[in-house]
Amino acid sequence: MDPQTIGPRQPADAEPPAHTTDTGVTRRVVLAGALAGGVGAVAGFAGGRASAGGGAAPGIGELSYPFRGEHQQGVTTPAQQQMHLTAFDVTARDRDSLIDLLTAWTRAAENLTQGLPVDSMRVSKSAPPDDTGEAFDLPAAGLTITFGFGRTLFRDQQGRDRFGLGDRLPAALAEDIPRMAAEKIDPGRSGGDLVVQACAEDPLVALHAVHNLTRIAFGWATVRWTQLGYGRTSSTGAGQVTPRNLFGFKDGTASLRGNQDELLRDFVWVAEGDGGGAADWMAGGTYLCARKIRMTMEVWDELPLRDQENAVGRDKISGAPLSGGDESSAPDFTARTPGGSPVIPEASHVALMHPTRNAGVQMLRRGYNYTDGSDELGRLDAGLFFIAFVRDPRQHFTPLLARMQFDLLTQYLQHLTNSVFAIPPGLAEGQIYVGQGLFEDPV
Known about the structure:
Number of helices: 12
């Protein structure tokens, strides 16, 4: 593919980029054709790249996941150790330009997730290379790239329907998450028109993906905010051990796993008819709910172990509920101390958040730790970047968040950001860009 066919990158305030090449072929046609053979176009480079790594023994770095499928990758995929999530505001002025961006992103993501560069290498040394190159010698490292749409893509803050999508806004995305206690929400680091979640076992691989997708977006979209995460705080793979959060407790013991198909159908994957026929383009998709939660670790660290365990409702070492057993044991909320008090305090995190206390509602959690340095008093600016995938935020996220206001943990937490994105279904054969069903007329 001639790398110049994607067209010149324009500043955000420039006139909309032309949609034809010098030969008169539309850019979308060029991109669509490249998608059909994009992976093959760089196969020769991949062969050389594999040997460039010094012949290291195969391992977790060589993991790769299919990009196409019924659902997008990066949801039920076994949670990787590194995350780089970025939200964008669209500056493109028309629907065709937005589709061009999604097409270019899809093509790049399909290559990147297989350990390939964004595009074939340029022959000319007088032009910038298509791929920035920082991951040339690295394998795929389990990279997944997940794309989503924010509410403002359908109608912006002024109520404008910029891309003719207003009548296809899912009802589940139309409502804001209500204000909760212990919040100091930063609007500038919340929301956005588009979101890209890149997860990998190698932080440089995830950074490389977001770096190149951001570069591709120039003239079409600008970065609104970004968040790096490390050390997964939940398990989505059936064989993954439960990780610990920055308070030192096992986190997400009772959360959904990627092999629980029946529960995933009930609580994660959107079905046809959810929210009305206008939103059927979301069937097979899900909703990403994200919250950045600062943890006041210096205060927590000085609590007696008993107080820590009573706030969580679990043994700090084993992860077992305070009612006994091991980590996988069901909590017994009827158990009483000799004095008659609940063994698991009623305001503990487990007592308030466990599915059995919430009509069986579950979330697929996929959060990460974050650290943004230290504040002016030397306290760690760190905590949990909470991510959950749910079928309907109104039923499967907001009610649980409301209950968390009464959680004993809340006094040691502060919620800083709040975002919800519609994650469309996976890329079917014959489709050329993620979310294509949104832009096609309903049948």
